[in-house]
């Protein structure tokens, strides 16, 4: 990337091709901010925007995941006049909106397109799946195979199987997995196996999930064992957790998340000596927990970052007071802190104090300060939400009457009127 920047800087005459190549390079190297800045400069310099540069900018906005850039790119595309008529741009835009948490906007783009292909449908199905709208994802697939001549590909099935797994539609998931192999001759890849293990595991069919992994015709990848370990957390299965974790420790010796997950599973079963064994292993291997952090995007497009227990935000005092007030109102409505979310062996007051400092709670309190009743609060989080934060988000959506969208490292949670789109399984 450094060499590319050097050459680009020295070019005396930069044409569309050079600018576009730079945008694409940044996207491919996961540097979305620079990609968008380059795209903006290219436009300001008066160069024509075409499909390739636009798709680069759209992918960058998808990587960034914020509303501000997503809407900006959409405006540019509309000014240039290539959304409805260009199936490549349209499909990329559906994917972008899905990844940025605007599923209704993704739908609007889908509906406005004059022509659709397998990418448009797959992006829509995956988007709906990530937002917990499994029924619509399945209907979309049925429409695609029933009413069009478009053949699904392996990506389509990842979206479809994800939808089934998030909605715990075990029978449907099994059916589509066979359909993919038998009807469409698609050889399952790692990603499909991950989906099936996740499907069985979430539904609590732990033994079956383990047997499925053992019978796989290819060597199970880390993702497969990770899905199994994740299911063990939901269903508190310490025996299978140990099997999955041991394989993961071999495949990803530095994967901090696996150690943390296993120690959480032991902790919630009260197996404190096993917890300290896992901690010891982490210390020996020099591994540290990734700090948990949340971002909140305000209406003016600014991102505010929060760390657990931190006072760094300029309005920190006000935010903490707002959080206290919100929690007091939730308690009137029956909220009890989920103390088992804290996996340290400390007393209950201390657990409650730690829970209050979780980064997404600070973010949501700030969100309440910055919005009116009926408005939406958007939060991004780098790790999985704990059970207590999930309860708080659910209740804030009802008591404070806000719609809340949280994107964690896996999926979107839409909290509305006391309910979450994930149905309590995540
Ligand atoms: Zn939490
Ligand atoms: Zn949820």
Automatic annotation (TrEMBL):
One Gene Ontology term from the biological process aspect of the record: RNA modification
Keyword line: Repeat
PROSITE patterns in the record: PPR
Protein's organism: Asparagus officinalis
PANTHER family membership: DYW DOMAIN-CONTAINING PROTEIN, PENTATRICOPEPTIDE REPEAT-CONTAINING PROTEIN
Start-end of each PPR repeat: 15-49, 86-120
Sequence ranges assigned to domain DYW in this UniProt record: 334-426
Cited InterPro entries: DYW_dom, E2_motif, E_motif, PPR_At4g14850-like_plant, PPR_rpt, TPR-like_helical_dom_sf
A GO MF term: zinc ion binding
Protein name as catalogued: DYW domain-containing protein
